[in-house]
Amino acid sequence: MVGLLLAPKFAPESPEEPHYSARDLPRAGYGSASQREAETRARKRIEYATELAAARPGQWLPKQVLARALRSRYLVDGNPDALRDAGLQLAAARADAADGSGPGLISAEWSMEVHDLVGAEAGLAAYDKGVVKLSTGEQATALELRGDINFYRGDLSAAERLYGAARKIENGPSVQVRLAVLEKSRGKFDAAITHLVNAARLDSLRTPQSLANIALQAGAIEFARGRYDVAQEWYREADDLFAGYWKTKLYLGEAALVAGETGKAAGMFEDVATDTNDPQAMDALAMLYRRMGNRQRSKEWASRASAEWERRVADIPSAYVAHAAEHELTFGDPARALVYARQNATTRPNGEAYLLLARALSANGQDNAAMKQLMRAKKSGWKSARLYVELAQLSAALGDDAQATEARAIALELNPRIYSPEATLIWFAHG
Fold first, then answer.
1. Taking a C-beta distance cutoff of 8 angstroms, is the pair 87, 114 a contact?
2. How far is CA 29 from the centre of its chain?
3. Furthest-apart CA pair in the chain: how many Å?
4. pTM listed for this prediction
5. Is 243 helix (H, G, I), strand (E, B) or coil?
6. Which of 95, 203, 280, 372 is such that its CA lies 20 to 30 A from the CA of 392?
7. Can you say how many angstroms the Cα of residue 218 is from the centroid of all Cα atoms in its chain?
8. Buried b (16+ CB within 10 A) or exposed e, 302-312
């Protein structure tokens, strides 16, 4: 649902882009004020939807209802089994649906959630064949999803055109968030945050959790450009908006780590790892203990993370291979990291995937091949401090001092603190 209140600026190219802060977010309209309360609602929703699907076994719509309920749990607590089971319910719904009906658009959304671009295209093709189109909102969503497919295939201009077309139909919060991701990928940080604030203001049914997610994204953008104190303000706002949120704990923990509060950071990471079995939190703990010189604790957490990444990759490869590659590069086997990174670049051939593949190639002694991937990322329009750090380092290693100097300057322009000791501690909000 979309409200009528617009933010003052929309043109991301404007040199007068407003510098928003966490204080500029509106208040929540309704919804659970804490993760615990949201979890209770999600469980009740799943119970009702499960009963409905059992009572109507041959109908596709109850299975879609159950899939959406399961996805709502995943969005609240990050449970990967709920995400997997939502996909299974949608597959069953598609099998039950007659031609011209079925969960095409919802299937496309789920596929994008797990980074399955081929599955998203199949869902959109089914939606196009549907006899009934329920709303202009659905049409806008279909265009946004097509924009996402182009974005993750590395065509940022095509993604922008499709987001623009969706925006003409319905200028809602979802398209604004997508535009924020697009502008961040181009290194246009103020424009990205402007779109996030627009998303919050346009959402007439904004919940504490949706606002918290916007605050976390804005904070991560500030982190990616080295404004750690400003990022903490966004993270604290997220914590105030939606108490006990596991994602907020991760980002607040990282901010504490960068600020030198290692005990506080370890406590937050361990809370998330224990409560949710999230392997990203385990990786962060393994990194923290490695830096502290506690090799035993580091190995313990890295081993637990490895097992969980392996399980998740087995369930939904497209959703987790990039994270698994990051883990293997840092704690495991470079050859295995390369397998994962290649798989990720095949399914999502965009700048971020090229950068990850370049790092894996370099870790396996293939510097020339790595350089080709970095140049592909650069040519696509992807612009992050991490990309240019890698480009500077590899250029220097290959003897191209001029390119190394230029890349280093761009990295520092994007993030003046990218070469600081604390920047090496960042696991989540690295940009």
1. yes
2. 24
3. 69
4. 0.93
5. strand
6. 280
7. 12
8. bebbbebbeeb
